[in-house]
Structure formats: structure tokens, C-alpha cells
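Quick check before the chapter quiz. The format below is the same one you will see on the exam, so make sure you can read both the input and the output lines.
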Amino acid sequence: MAACDTTVPPNTAVWSVSETDPTRESLLLNETLFALGNGYLGTRGTFEEGTSLTRDGGAEGTFLNGIYDQGGIVYPENAYGLARTHQSIFTGPDGKAVEIWVDGERLDIARGTLHAYERHLDYREGILRRTLDWEAPSGARVRLRFLRLASFCERAIIAQRMDMEAVTPCTIRLVSHLRDHGDLEDEAQSDATDSRKGTTIADFANRSHITDVRDRAAAMFTGATGADFGVVTAIDHVFSQGEPVDVASDRGAASFVFEAALDAGGSARLDKLIAITHDNHAAATETERRAWGALDRVRAGGIDMLAEEQKRYLAAFWESADIELHGDPDMQRALRFAGYHLLQGAGFDGRRGIAAKGLSSNGYDGHYFWDKEVYILPFFTYARPDIARSLLAYRCSMLEKARSRARDLGHMKGALIPWRTIGGEECSAYFPAGTAQYHINADIAYAIRQYVLATGDTDFLRHTALEVVLETARVWADVGFFNPARDDRFCIPGVTGPDEYTAIVDNNYYTNAMAAMHLKFAVSSARWLKEHYPQDYAALTQRLDLKDSELDFWQDAADKMYLPMSPDGSFIAQDDFFLSRPVWPFDETPKHHYPLLLHYHPLVIYRHQVCKQADAVMATFMTPDGLSADQIRATYDYYEPLTVHDSSLSPPIHSIMAGRLGMKDRAMDYFRETALVDIANTKGNTGDGVHTACMGGAWLAFASGFGGVTLHPDRLDLSPWLPEGWDGFTLPLTYRGRRLRLTVDEKSVTIALVAGEPLDVDTGNGPHRLVEGEDFRVSDGTASLKAPDAPVLPA
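Here is the expected output.
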């Protein structure tokens, strides 16, 4: 495992992150750490008033989940079936900016004297607060308190408050702006040499225009580039000292000037409300009406009402999501940081997903990957099943475009989920490590299966997800074949597995094993539907032209799937070719040449045994059936030294498997590396946005590792263990409509049914009926929660 600095910043508490010494470096990083979002919109943690400290490197941005700019992909050398469309998360106008002038001098913490400063975000209240005591070069001095929130209850709203107190007599002048993001475009968010950063679709000039200016309010319409989205951004103000003294506007901006002459000790307050709504271009008038309506609702109750609603919303969230960890404050704060940022980035209404960087930046262009279902969805499945359902529903809504993509790839039936997308079209211009990752079809099916088994939500499977499971299964039948050279086993050629440092191979073990799981789940789900809902089955199979013979073929393919092993059969072979290649010269590779993808041509990497991330090891976690304990151990031992963890997706899987293999110190090392990626900036790129999949991986590593949570069709197994140095932990879980709490300390393991119907628990001492409000001590430390008899689910 590559060494990394896992030092936690000192100004953090277990429920919050703070900043007390603003430097250029800390501010660039904390634009991400202090980013706010609510699943619909997100905004970077930049200052309202700006600062010259970051003017040449900061990255302003307010982003809309599921809304995107779109343009064509240009290939100097073209080929049939390449992705044609590029999408980039919509970056809206800047409504946050408020210049602050004190006796004619603009407030900038890089100038004058900063007597005191603190910025603080508490995850229980969801409010970003900042205080500063600033003296201008002229000697005028003010104290300011800032508040900002992105409302979870009024999703269209960002609210800001500025309280100003004069230390010396002075005149305060505030200039509040609404301006097109095109005027602020900054190359800090775009880097042609780094695929992890965002790109710019096209010139943003003249895509926005002011549509309405009122006494203290204005609205701007912005058309997405190349896509049929229209966005309205409206701002409104309440100033304690009266109306604005000046209002100015042109096509691309509006500004409002507020002034107050303050005696020493005098104060003034400016509340600024920002509403963002969207629809298609044709509905611009209606979109603006909804923006004004949101401002009217919020103005009636004010920011104080929003703040109280925010606290109540988060209190309910943490009741079902908060892991309480005793004895390790660094890991406690990291887990809460992760949970909060996952909530901020996740779609909630079935019309948007969660991007690789959440809503903290335009990194990876705001695209959705397999990360969403494999790494992030488990957190929501067990903490907020309603959000998990929403995320899956949005993926399912892309089915028609996935069918179209399958035709591009020569599959006359079925659907192929795009590797990276926002709106459903494939956006990966590098197909060897993009489109070739067919395993995404199985990843989505796996996530649907896990969600249904954990929640019992058969309605979702029946009415929404099953068609996706069946259509994506069809691609396996088309891309694979029964190979006489492999004793007529079913083989899948020409794909890329999770390890993106090995591309276009035959029989990637992970892909084949996941395809077998997918095909079996598709068959069992179809037969389940036929047995319990025959009319639905008849309608679905008629619509898909799905015959029983096709299901029989899938079952046969799954049963005879070829799963490559080492020559002696002792461990997994990543694919047909991997073990025959030379091992990467690790001893000759300088530390500054990691990640490898930034320093070596892909072909150089592809020719070696080197893994960007867990691939074969991940298969032992997700599809362990058929593997012996010795084979799982040997697989881990072989691939761990070859894995450089250049992807943050890798350490959580290694943490889980190291723990299950009894390597508890290694498990803890990998867990720390996972949990601290952003809060300690261990990859050095958190300033480009949070790593949402890694944060989901932190929960997954905790729950599946230390909590021992393992889901089966008929039960949920718990086999927790306590790492050395920890005093204990409490893990909340939602299972089949019941809210549970697993508590582990040095002396005992306890399961509590917090809310819901009784549940049967099997332990080494026999069965027990767990009832609401009961704390049940598990004498042997392991337990199986028996799934209720209803609803009946497919295996």
C-alpha cells in the first residue's frame, strides 16, 4: 500500500470542520470542504466578498444536479460507435457575490489587518458560519458574521446573511451581484492533462440575460449550452437600513448597492436570498415564476425559519445515519464528514443521481459512474432507503438511451448502461477504460438486488427496475459465447474490468462473475414475477419479446460461466492474460510518478502486472460464492503488492477483505486511508472536489468490515469486530422497514430494534424474537436477522 499523509487538520471537531488561519493553500482546499449542497444545487465554499489570495487559482461555481451543458466530441481519428456527446454539469450564474467596502476601501483579508477569523461548518445544523474582525489600511475597523445555507427543505434556495458591527465609526457600502458565470470562467477547474478535472463545453458568453429587475431583486435566465435546459437564478434582499441606494443592470448582470453610516458599536444586517429553478427553454416564464415563488415563501419566514428547518431535517437524517465511534475522534469526524457530503450531493426525487464529486465542483464534469451504485448506494440503502430508491430510479429512467447505446455497440437486443453520463448518453471518449467496462450493467443489477433484498421493496422491482435488469442481462448473452477451447464454458471477450490499468481483455474474472450473478438474478426475478404477478409478467415479456428459451439460455450461461484461475487453481486470475505479463518495476518508479496515469502512456501501463484499484480482490468481496477461504486469501496476497491504489475506490475494498482475513492492522490502515481522503487531503486534489465514492466506501468498509454486515436473500448477517484502540461503536441500520442499532464494545455486542415490527434473530444460542425498544445482547458476538416471511422475494 502506498504511504500517504493521514494527518487530520487540527481545527476540526467530531461534528464539524473549522478554519482559523486562512492562507492561499487552505482557502483553495476549503472551497471544497466548505461547499454546500442539498441534492439539487451545490455551491463552492468561496467568500461572498472574494479575496485576492485565491483570485488566480480559486474556482467559483454553483452547480445543478442532473442539469448539464452538452456538446459534440471531436475525434481527429474517427471510428464507428464512439461516444458522440459530451456533457458537463451545469455551472450557474454567480448569485453569492457581495462586495464589502469600508470607508471606501474594499474588504479583502489579504490586505489590511485581520484581527480575528474563523470559518465553521457543523453537520448537525448544515450552516456555514464565518466571523472576522478586519481593519482597513485607513484604520477603519469592522466585525462581520456570515451565515450561508443550501436548504434541504426549500431545495431551490441558497440563503446568506451578513451582520456588520462597526468597531470604529465608518460607512459600510455593500454591492450585491447577480452575474453570468461566463464572466468568471476560471481554468483552475479545467485541465486537459488530468481526466479527473472538469472541462468546458463551449464559450459561455451571452448565454445569460437579465429578465427582471425590481426594487431590491432581479432574475436572470441562462440557457444550457447545447441542451434543452433553461435555468432561472433570482436574488432578493432584506437590508436592516432600508432600500438600495443604487440599482444597475445590463444584459449579463445586475447589482444592488446598500449603504449604512455606523457609529462605533453600530450594526447593520443584509440577508440575501438566491433561488434557482430550471425547466426546458420553452418554459422560461414558468421557471421564473417558480423562482419568484420560492423567494416569496422564504421571505415570509426568513432565514431564521430556514435555519430551524435545516436543523430538524438533519436531526432526522443523523438518527438513521450516524455511526457513533468511541476512542478515535479522527475517524469519527471523518465518517460524519463523509455522511454529510453524501447527503449534500445525492439526488432525492428520481430525476438526478450523485456525481463523482457530488455538488462540490465540476470535477469529472459532474458525471455519474458505477461508483454511485456500488460504493454510495449501500450507505443510503441502510440509512435512507428513500434516497437509495431515488438514485436507482434515475438510473432506470435512462433505459431507452441505454438501449440506443447497445445498438451503437452492435447489440440488437438489450441495453448497455453508459460508463459516464449525466443525461443517459455515453460521454466517455476513451473507450478502452470507459465503454469497455461492460461490468457496469452487472453493477447496476447488483445494486438493484441489494436494495430489494435489504428493503423488501418489491414494488420498485416489479414496476421500475425489473425491465432494466432483463434488458441489461441480454447484453451478456450477446457479447459472450460458449467457447469450445474452454470446455464449452461461457466466455466474455474484449472487456475492461474495474482495474483501469488493464484494458480490453478476455474473461476478466470480476466481469464474468458479476455477469453470472446478473443473469441468475434476471432469471429468478422473471420467474418470481411470473409466479406472483402473472399478468405483469405477460405484459412485460410481450413488450420485450422475451421468451422462456431466452431465460433458459441465461441460466445455462450463468451456470457455465468461465472464471479464470491461476495455473494451479490456488487464486483468481484477473483475466486470461494478466498473469503472463511482467510485473511493473515498482522499485524503479519514483514516488512523484504516482498516479501512474499522469506519467505513463496507457499502453506502457497495460503491458504490466499493475492494478490501479481492486479488481480480483473486489470479486472476492462481491461474488465470493464458489471460492474457498484459501483461494480468497491467496488472491488477496497475490494482488495486494501489485495494487497502487491510484483510485480512491481501492482502499475500502482492501480494508474489508483484510479484516475478513484476520489482518486487522492492515484493515485499519486501509480504512484510515479511505476515511481521510478528503478531510486530510491525502490525494492532494480535494480542492478539485470531494471523492463521493470514497466517502461511500468509508461507510461500506465500516459496515461490511467492522460491522460484519453481509446481506443474503433470507437474512442479514452481523459479525462485528472491534479494532484495537477503539472503545466501541454504534452502527444504525435500516432493514426491511425496521430501524436497528448495532452496538459493539470490548465486552459485548448488542442489537436494538429502535422502530418497527418484531424481527427474528438467530444466534449461537438459538432464535430470539426482537421487539421494538429492546436491547438484545448477543452472547457469541454474531447474529443473523431473519428476513420477514413477507414480502416474498426472488433469490
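If your answer matched, good. Residues 24 and 53 are 5 Å apart (CA to CA).
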